[in-house]
Every structure is written in structure tokens, then in C-alpha cells.
Amino acid sequence: MKNTKLVQTLKTFTKDEMKLFEKFVASPYFNNGRNYLPFLKELQNHYPDFEDLKGKLTSEYVYQKLYPGKKFNKQVMWNQVSQLEKLAREFLLQTSLKSNKSERFVMMFNELSKRNLDKQVLKEIEKADKYLNTVKLGEEYFSLKWIVEINRADYWNSVLGRQDKSFEGTVKSTEYLLLKFLADLSIQVWDLNILKIMYNASDEIDSALELLRSLDLKNLIKVHKKSRNRYSKVINFITIKLCAFWMRMTKAIFLK
User: Fold this and answer.
1) Are both 51 and 80 inside the same structural domain?
2) Does some domain include residue 210?
């Protein structure tokens, strides 16, 4: 059992996470009314290394601890392992959502919008704006800004009937989407360059580089130099920095 995906996952849990996972497994909301705590507690006896000392981590041994006096049933044991593994994955997902505030905002916006809970959407926008004041410029910032402006534009249009404000929000969301794209792209270019250096993967990444080369970044800079939009300077600044970065990483392939 030590080589199962379940045990390999549990090995990565900290002590605090293991305690929280125990509460998670006990919750009827997640366990569908099944009690997997005895199985988990038996496995916890082997935490954190989960070494099979004296054969106490075999399926047969654990089964006897769970069902004293009963004949070993491979299917029952497999079901226990499978279901607890699913709970472990769900726990990881919930843990990630708890720590990823931006993703939580996105999911909350989606749910509130589907249910037409307009006042709650506005409240969530206010919360997101406050959170964004604590976030540095980067992929997370631009990504969440994009989502916030989309929802703000929709609120102005569908709830307040202000198409002028809705138009402004749509323009803003598009610009933040562009900024998110540029931020994401710079990371990918860096990764491509590392692959090229480490694995001499020139041929394999040529198609990706050609696609990036087709982007007219020089023209984007010119357009935003002339633009009077209040976000144009931000886009222009980031684009110039990215161009300089890409030139260093890819020997000027983007601005030839």
C-alpha cells in the first residue's frame, strides 16, 4: 500500500494539513455519509514516512485492523483506498482555493452572476478592488483586474442601465487582458529560452518563436504612444520592457 497514489499524496501533507484533512474527511458534505476516519487514522500511524515496518502497511494487515475477524476482501480495501484518495485530492483543491484569493474572486463572480445576485456582485467588486491594492503588478494583478472590469461593466449595463459606463469598463477589461497576455507571454518566452539553452531545443521551439515574432510589438508601442487613454502609458511601458527582455533572451528575434 505504501506505493499507492493515496499514500504518496499523504506523504506531502504537513502536520497541520494532516489535522485539517482529518476534519475534512469527517465532514458529511465531502464524504457522502461514509466513514473513512478509521482507515485514515490507521494510515496516520505510519505518518510521515509511511514505511512498511513489519508488514503493517499492507492491504491485508490494514483490513484486519478495520474489520477484525473478517476474511480479506480486496474489493472493499480497494474502495477504501480509492475513496480516500479522492478526498485527498479534493482537500488539496480546497486548500488551494483558500490560499488563492484571485481564483476565489473569479469563482464567486461566476456563481453570483449566474444567480443574478447583482448587489452581491457589487459587494464582491468592492472587496476585489481592496485586495488588488495589496497586489503587485504582474499576472495575478492584471488577470483579476480583467475579471473585475468585466463584471463592473456588466453591472453598469444590466443593473443601472449606464451603457456609457459599461463601455468604459469593457475598454478597461480589454486593456487588462492585453497586459495579462503580455505578462504571461514573457514568462513563456523565458521558459523557451531555458529549454533552448539546456536542451539545445532550437528546432522544437522554432514554431513557437515564429508565432511570437509575428506579433508587431513595435507597432503596439507606436499606437499607445499616440493614445490618450489613461492606461496607454502602462501598456507602453510594459511592452517596451518586454521587448527589451525578449531581445536579450532571444537575440532580437522579435524586433528584427
Assistant:
1) yes
2) yes
Q: Do both 166 and 216 map to the same domain?
A: yes
The range of the structural domain enclosing residue 174 comes to 101-250
Report which of 38, 1, 19 is spatially closest to residue 91, judged by C-alpha positions: 19
Set of cell numbers at residue 198: 539546456
d(CA 142, CA 137) in angstroms, rounded, equals 7
Given a cut of 90, whether residue 89 has pLDDT beyond it is yes
> In 10 A of CB 163, how many CB atoms?
12
- What share of the chain in percent tops pLDDT 70? 76
**Is residue 256 assigned to a domain?**
no
- Per-residue pLDDT at 255: 41
Nearest-angstrom CA–CA distance, 217 and 254: 8
Task: Let me know whether 147 and 190 are in one domain.
Answer: yes
- Give the whole-angstrom CA distance, residue 21 versus residue 223: 53
pTM metric for this prediction: 0.73
User: Taking the alpha carbons of 23, 28, 31, 33 in that order, is the dihedral positive or negative?
Assistant: positive
